[in-house]
Amino acid sequence: MTLPPFQSLLDAHAPDLYRFLVAAVGRHDGDDLFQETVISALRSYPGLRHADNLRGWLFTIAHRKVIDQARRRVRQPVPAADPPDVPQLDADTIVDAELWDAVRRLPPKQRSAVVQRYLLDRPYAEIAAVVGSSEDAARQNVRAGLQRLRQEVTR
Amino acid sequence: MNATNSTNELHRRSDRRVPGGADGDDEDDLGMRLRRADTTDVAALVDATLRRADAEGLVDVGWVVEDTPVGPLMLAATPAGVVRIEFGGGERVLEELASEVSPRVLRLPGRLDDVRRELEEYFAGRRRSFDVPVDRRLSRGYRRTVLEALSREVPYGHTVSYKELAERTGNPNASRAVGSAMATNPIPIVVPCHRVLRTGGALGGYGGGLDTKVWLLRHEGALLG
Question: pLDDT averaged over consecutive 10-residue blocks of chain A (155 residues)?
Fold first, then answer.
């Protein structure tokens, strides 16, 4: 079994991986989680037993980083004196700050599912693999995420 | 500009697959707004990430493509030293390195700084031998013995025949094996297989092309004219 050079995974998927993470956690944490995702992936890459769906494998690691980060946030709430966690959004990068703030308040599974579905345009089978659920559950995650966004976001 | 194009591309694809947004997602303008997000170039972040990966010992092969007077060279190194040099900068070699050394093959220019500097000095005529460590793991057995003898015994500006090199390794009848050792030298220029000629001075072969072999030998003053 031969795995492709890891560089080819980065060439193919790094832009989407970064978009996924910035959408899920904001620009600042997105940078950190991108690095952590790639480092974790590099640690386990030589031990992979097959090269099927390396994209899904990479995004599964990224999704777990998003979950870990959400747990850290719960354990260490941001002090009330701090300004609210509004990610730095350049007007020309992420244009819809209100919506993305709401996305980042979704539970991690819904968040990953919504971002995979809409920002990255992935099929439900792949979303299911990334968030570790059935295809139906992935569909339900997207639906529930959208519903919640609709309640929070002005039109 | 590309980012904008690819976003539009997403819109088009999605519109095709979700006519009227009726695929059970209850999609409306919210879906369109979610599709619109975009981020800037990720290259600088990738570079920073790979420097960190290197510091954590996670880059088994680092490579870069460097322009030189003999054309682009793909330079690759493990933490132990320069492991591979390929004429033409061919990135197909990356696949070979992934299967023969480790799949953790990454573009890491910093890993190659020393050999790039020494090559630049060599091509500028200011360096006659290479001091960078080499990792000889891609050559084995007698081939490796021959390449080590070549590095040790045939200095800048000198040439040797396949037969003489065979003799110097204690195998006077092994010229053919010496020839295949040269043909499969993983680290040309730094391990100077261009200095090996046929008996009588005919050029023999060269992985980087005979023009390159002649260029290198003239550059070293080993060929006249």
Answer: 93 93 89 96 95 93 93 66 44 65 92 92 93 95 94 78
Q: How far is CA B118 from CA B113, B123, B182, in A?
A: 9, 9, 22
Q: Of B14, B46, B95, which has the smallest distance from its Cβ to A10's Cβ?
A: B46
Across the interface, whether the CB atoms of A146 and B53 are under 8 A apart is answered no
Fold type of domain B141-219: Arc Repressor Mutant, subunit A (1.10.10)
Give the orientation angle of helix A27-44 with respect to helix A6-25, to 10 degrees: 150
Q: How large a percentage of chain B has pLDDT more than 70? A: 81
Catalytic residues of B: 193
Q: Look at the pTM and tell me if it is higher than 0.90.
A: no
Q: Which amino acid is at B147?
A: L
Which CATH fold topology does B44-123 show? Double Stranded RNA Binding Domain (3.30.160)
CB contact under 8 A, B26 and A3: no
The domain limits of chain B are 2-35, 44-123, 141-219
